[in-house]
Amino acid sequence: MWDNHQALRGLANALRLAALAMLLYAGGFWLVHSPLFPVRSIYIQGALKRVTPVQLKYIAEHELAGTFFTLDIDKTRAAFQKLPWVRDAQVRRRWPDALFITVEEHVALARWGENGLIDTNGEWFDAASDQNLPVLIGSAGSEKTLATALPKIQQALSRSGLSAVQVEMSARGAWRVELSNEIRLELGRDDVEARARRFAEYWKGNLAALPYKIEYVDMRYPNGFAVRMPDYKGTPAHKTKP
């Protein structure tokens, strides 16, 4: 081999290429990790109502680590998502030293029992709120179903002038609604919106005029409804046909 000049030239070229590659790698490694390329500017974007500048500043100062090149985008995104009202955060670099972070907040729709909130996407999140929100009650995994149904039930009740302050779905899929005037509305498992709409019509036409305190209205009857009035001196339950 040592007498083969062509092979020796090939070996020398290969060694030179390897040395050049190692030099480029070392230079690139130094460039990427060099403190000469810090993140100097952080820009926060998004319609923020609940997330405060103090919270964002704390995350920026205590959770972000690395240079412009080495900063971990996924970890940075996760750091901002730790904030209670942050639903999502998108992070992107902009040369030479800027970081742009777009923050999406949760929009609270209701309270989830006594533990946390439900947003308009049907997602549970743990945050404090002083808003006057209806309460949703259901089994684990039913959050989205209840969140989807709530606006429809509210719309169905709108003609009555009443609103739902609590909506509950049992493990068997039966719906119960507590109204703003403290009446309990039993809607059963089927045709929930139609039954709520039917109640609204009867409320404006008949029920609101009754001179008794109404405890609950049961709309599960196909051709009528039952009304529980504790002050009524007749039968315990007053059944009415339209």
From TrEMBL:
Which InterPro entries does the record cross-reference, listed alphabetically? Cell_div_FtsQ/DivIB_C, FtsQ, FtsQ_C_sf, POTRA, POTRA_FtsQ_type
TM stretches of this protein: 12-32
Compartment(s): Cell inner membrane; Membrane
Pfam families with a match to the protein in the record: FtsQ_DivIB_C, POTRA_1
UniProt-listed GO biological process terms:
cell division
Could you tell me the superkingdom of the organism this chain comes from? Bacteria
- Per UniProt, residues of the POTRA domain are 37-106
Its keywords, alphabetically, are: Cell cycle, Cell division, Cell inner membrane, Cell membrane, Membrane, Transmembrane, Transmembrane helix
Residues of the signal sequence? none
Q: How does it sit in the membrane?
A: Single-pass type II membrane protein
Subunit info here reads:
Part of a complex composed of FtsB, FtsL and FtsQ.
Q: Which PANTHER family match?
A: CELL DIVISION PROTEIN FTSQ
Function recorded in the entry: Essential cell division protein. May link together the upstream cell division proteins, which are predominantly cytoplasmic, with the downstream cell division proteins, which are predominantly periplasmic. May control correct divisome assembly.
Record's family?
Answer: Belongs to the FtsQ/DivIB family. FtsQ subfamily.
> Under which name does UniProt file this protein?
Cell division protein FtsQ
Organism equals: Crenobacter oryzisoli
